[in-house]
Amino acid sequence: MNTRIIYALALTLTSCWAHAVEGDPQPSVMWEYFHQRLLDNADFVFDEAVKVSVPPFAEDARQVPIEVDARALPGKVERVMIWAELNPIPQVLTLYPSAELEKFLAVRIRVEQATPIRAALLMDDGIWHVGSARVEAAGGGCSAPSVVRAQEGWEDHLGEIFGARFKAGDNSRLRLSVSHPMDNGLVDSIPEFYVNQAELRDRSGAVLARIDLFSAVSENPTLTLGIKGHPETQLWLRDNNGNEFTADIP
Amino acid sequence: MKRTRLHQMFALSALCGAMLLHSVGVQAVTDEEILDDANTTHQIVSNGLGLAGQRYSPLATVNVDTVQQLRPVWALSFGGEKQRGQESQPMIKDGVMYVTASYSRVFAMDARTGKELWQYDARLPDGIMPCCDVINRGVALYGDLVIVGTLDAKLVALNKDTGKVVWRKTVADYKAGYSITAAPIVVKGKLITGVSGGEFGIVGKVEAYNPVNGDLIWTRPTVEGHMGYVWKDGKKIESGISGGEAGKTWPGDLWKTGGAAPWLGGSYDAETDSLLFGTSNPSPWNSHMRPGDNLFSSSRLALNPDDGSIKWHFQTTPHDGWDYDGVNELVSFSYEENGKTVKAAATADRNGYFYVLDRSNGKFIRGFPFADKITWAKGLDKDGRPIYDESNRPGAPGEGKQGSSVFVAPAFLGAKNWMPMAYSQDTGLFYVPVNEWGMDIWNEGVTYKKGAAYLGAGFTIRPLNEDYIGVLKAIDPKTGKEVWRYKNYAPLWGGVLATKGNLVFTGNPEGFLMAFDAKTGKKLYEFQTGSGVLGSPVTWEMDGEQYISVVSGWGGAVPLWGGEVAKRVKDYNQGGMVWTFKLPKEHTL
User: Fold this and answer.
1) Annotated domain spans of chain B
2) Which residue, B17, B226, B389, B481, is most buried by CB atoms nearer than 10 A?
3) Looking at the domain that runs over A48-249, which CATH code has it been given?
């Protein structure tokens, strides 16, 4: 091969995929890539006020709980992004919260191998505040077929939502679970089929939070949101096939 | 609380940030474009190359002198394990091809290169009940939407640039046996679809939806006795019982599970402002359970597109006892006779007769056999009604027993099945894919159970000739004369295309796309696509060149229902591909 081409290629690669950035609590070769792809190269800080909790080891790589607690972070949140850096499908969700939401959420995801988990909050100062954690895993969580679809009559339960609101002092926790295979298209002959849109609404229909979901979210997705006060809410979901589901959470 | 110093970003690397999005400058499809599709060559925005369904193209660059030089330019696989049963007709708009594949999938690809742009895979429940393979016959295009019917009886509208679902509506309950395999059509801003399920005792219906948001506009049941409805300002309003009242042509309450599924969709005649839809067999197959004509089964219907009311009907097989569905396409055309223009419509029925009707009122003009052997009827009377040979109606089952078996031609899969014929405006001939076969058929007792097969009949299909089943026939609709025929070993199951290049294209289960001289029937070209061709070929013009496309992928009803015939085709292999052809530049004369 022409050496000049190699040189040019190497230059391109190094300029695109720089090595771990200074101060990263979970140094990763993929940080720069996601900084460009997801955060659009915007200003950021690694901030311990964004606490990401994961189990030290993924006992079940198809159901790995992630908790993001940024209640210590002052200011208004514009957007929250969560991703698993070394996953084949890295993006987990993007949350667009209203002021009615607490800076707290939890979700279960699939991981394919040990990976840094990032939660980035775009605050009203225009800066992404990034929290990090690392989950160890034996792997394979993304390429195993869903258990749901092997069960007979799964379509009768598709989109069933189990959920409840729990009081947590002045505020509430919403804990929700949805019956859905969340197929990510990585398993042979099983096309993508997953919930990709969600909205949490109050009783008047006003949107409290809009969420874009990706197929890194576990099958039968489990989602926990913190909301201010004790309102009754409604959850609306739509999958990539166009199925829509709603549930009232009194 | 620890926080790293702010990482401020001053320069974007254009090299890394450049995510080039595919942009093809796609324009929205309008009603005018759909109405004019038969006359435009740069795109295909209707099923049938024009709403009349003539499948005729005025393109002639590929012609009898050049067709031998036709070369494939690209092919795209439908991938995975879902190769079988490809019966779609591609659509073309602004350099993008939209084609469906089996299992209710939709593919969009660059029509110049075959590069896939997006793919939609409907997630189908395990309980779907397609009678005759997991096929799909194509999409409708309207505005920015690509609209497909699915095997679980839903309509899905996709964004034509991204393939993302815009809306999705349930047309009927798949657990009761409903499904959709036909391409929906768009007429006067309305999306029109039928349903499948005539083997499960469903009630056939034609429905119109708002293509923009999927709201139901009207529904018209195709079984006598059922109420039709229109929706005005969100209100459901009765719009008359089909056939006036229940019980006129059905005994007891069998009309409640009467079948008559318009499963092949339909066409539209702008001159008479009529939707032309055909209906399937009545349910169950056992005709002794339902004395009477059983309207509107095995019929052609002209519907008013504004409200779905039935303008006229023509029943090809009243009181069907042989599964002679009347769904086959009714193609509008005109011809001169005694100095007058006759506004006609023609159809080649499952029952072996070719009918020419007056499309303004549904009156019978003439009919004649297009199959070599017809035994269930002795002929047609002056109104086109069959003169039955009652000895060839399978006998009534006795108490818990099987009725007497008879050998009848054509077989239940029909002298012609779903595969659309073509009409050449140059030769004035119809090019009809015919199958010469018969069946042993007998009746059995049956009771209706939701979601279970509702036949009351047993059957096995047999070839009539050792050396061929399929015959492509050129038929003169004015005289009934057969001008030429091409015999094919396997049954024909693919659509036909006629062009101004004096050519007729079709494919066969052996895997060949073939081109014939439209006047003589001489085979001028064939290309092995690797698997059986069941799709309908299309042609269009792009960058000054004439392209031809067809899908390939053996499957469909024949290997599933085909008895002795299935043995004949058992070695044909599966494979799902779109093939696209054109002439090398130096051969375009």
Assistant:
1) 57-587
2) B226
3) 2.60.40.2470
A42: chain B residues, CB-CB within 8 Å = 9
**A242·B6 Cβ contact <8 A:** no
Distance between CA atoms of A124 and A78, rounded to whole angstroms? 6
Set of chain B residues whose Cβ sits within 8 Å of the Cβ of A43? 6-9
Q: How many helices (H) and strands (E) does chain B have?
A: 4, 40
- Full pLDDT tens readout for chain B, 589 residues: 678 888 887 644 444 434 344 444 457 999 999 999 999 999 999 999 999 999 999 999 999 999 999 999 999 999 777 899 999 999 999 999 999 999 999 999 999 999 999 999 999 998 899 888 899 999 999 999 999 999 999 999 999 999 999 999 999 999 999 999 999 999 999 999 999 999 999 999 999 999 999 999 999 999 999 999 999 998 999 999 999 999 999 999 999 999 999 999 999 999 999 999 999 999 999 999 999 999 999 999 999 999 999 999 999 999 999 999 999 999 999 999 999 999 999 999 999 999 999 999 999 999 999 999 999 999 999 999 999 999 999 999 987 688 999 999 999 999 999 999 999 999 999 999 999 999 999 999 999 999 999 999 999 999 999 999 999 999 999 999 999 999 999 999 999 999 999 999 999 999 999 999 999 999 999 999 999 999 999 999 999 999 999 999 999 998 888 788 988 898 898 899 999 999 998 766 5
CB contacts, 8 Å: A242 with chain B: 156, 165-168
**Are B9 and A43 in contact (CB < 8 Å)?**
yes
Closest in A12, A155, A192 to B15, CB measured: A12
In chain A, where the domains are located: 48-249
pTM: 0.88
ipTM of the complex: 0.73
CATH number for B57-587 (one of 2.40.30.10, 3.40.605.10, 2.140.10.10, 2.102.10.10): it is 2.140.10.10
